[in-house]
Write a structure and sequence with these properties.
Blueprint: E1 8-13, H1 16-27, E2 31-36, E3 41-43, E4 48-50, H2 53-60, E5 65-66, H3 74-82, E6 87-91, H4 98-101, E7 108-112, H5 124-130, E8 135-142, E9 152-159, H6 166-190, H7 223-232, E10 239-243, E11 246-256, E12 266-269, E13 275-278, E14 283-291, E15 297-298, H8 299-305, E16 311-312
Parallel strand pairs: 1-2, 1-6, 2-5, 6-7
Antiparallel strand pairs: 3-4, 7-8, 8-9, 10-11, 11-14, 12-13, 12-16, 13-14, 14-15
Helix pairs in contact: 1-6, 5-7
Length: 314
């Protein structure tokens, strides 16, 4: 039987995805002696100072918070060491230097949103959808020097819906990931865990960070590829194209197999008021979009206030 009050855990994370994992460990009764998260930053139109989602949870539950700018700072390392944690648990945080991840006697574990070693990198949820995968999953592993390469502890496979967006998969994964991380923490403190090396033959895809410039839609691609690209970037950072001199973001679509072929990038409105765009092969029907300077809306709502006609996207 684990005496969880005697099990000292430091949690490291920043975005909303990580909150569910922190909550699971905390509510399970483990002694969360510290929470490490990003520094407060200005955000929004008013540029007001905003706390990370993880910090908000930690403050609400009176957990000690550290917000280092530099993870190698001597004062931070001293403060972190003084917490005397048995285990560090990391979810959606920065890359840790060895001076940090080597501190706790039971090691430092990480939750990654893919079936490692496949889709190592910063944006695995986006890339599995962009690549049209039918299955993904979650992995807990011990952190080592090279990013996302440590020994695997547990994995959980998840089927992906045909039209599931990155936002929807994110929300499912944050819950399933919290359950897997808690199971991992339990196994480590009970001494019942096993670990094994990652199989290099399963490392087939990378998941690099996404930037605006590589989120532009290529209409010369076939409709299925374009559809997967759109859902893989929805809602953030968002797949985009140019309509005239304005940016048009597309958040939801589906492949339209009935419309005759057209010129890639051609946008038309069908007789039954569907907004269709031609791809290199077949068309997609746009279901949800956002014009630059406007709110996000259904295509049917967009068409009420905009006469599209026959237009080319770029």
């Amino acid at each position: 039987m684990i005496d969880k009050e005697q099990c000292r855990v430091v949690f490291m994370g920043t975005p909303e995805f990580a909150v569910e994992s922190l909550k699971a460990i905390h509510e399970a009764g483990y002694n969360v002696v510290g929470v490490i998260t990003a520094v407060d930053k200005p955000a929004g139109r008013g540029r007001s100072i905003q706390q990370s989602a993880v910090k908000k949870y930690a403050v609400e539950h009176e957990l000690e918070v550290l917000q280092p700018k530099n993870l190698k700072n001597k004062d931070f390392i001293a403060d972190l060491s003084a917490l005397e944690a048995d285990l560090f648990a990391v979810v959606a945080f920065r890359m840790l230097p060895e001076v940090v991840w080597s501190l706790p006697p039971k090691g430092t574990i990480n939750l990654h949103a893919s079936l490692l070693p496949d889709y190592r990198g910063a944006a695995p949820i986006n890339w599995v959808l962009i690549n049209g995968e039918e299955e993904s999953g979650l992995t807990t592993f011990f952190i080592e020097k090279e990013i996302d390469t440590g020994k695997i502890i547990l994995q959980n496979k998840l089927k992906i819906g045909e039209n599931e967006t990155a936002g929807e998969l994110h929300d499912r994964m944050k819950v399933a990931g919290a359950e897997l991380l808690l199971e991992t923490v339990d196994s480590i403190f009970s001494g019942s865990y096993t670990q094994y090396d990652q199989d290099p033959e399963k490392y087939k895809n990378k998941a690099p960070k996404l930037f605006k410039e590589n989120c532009r839609i290529d209409w010369d691609k076939d409709a299925t590829t374009v559809h997967n690209f759109i859902r893989g970037l929805s809602p953030f950072p968002g797949a985009w194209t140019k309509l005239g001199d304005k940016i048009l973001k597309i958040y939801r679509s589906k492949v339209d197999e009935e419309t005759e072929s057209g010129i890639a990038g051609e946008i038309t409105v069908t007789e039954d008021s569907k907004l269709n765009i031609a791809c290199g092969e077949q068309w997609i029907e746009v279901l949800e979009l956002q014009m630059e300077g406007k709110k996000r809306m259904a295509s049917s709502e967009f068409l009420k206030g905009n006469k599209v006609g026959s237009v080319m996207l770029s």
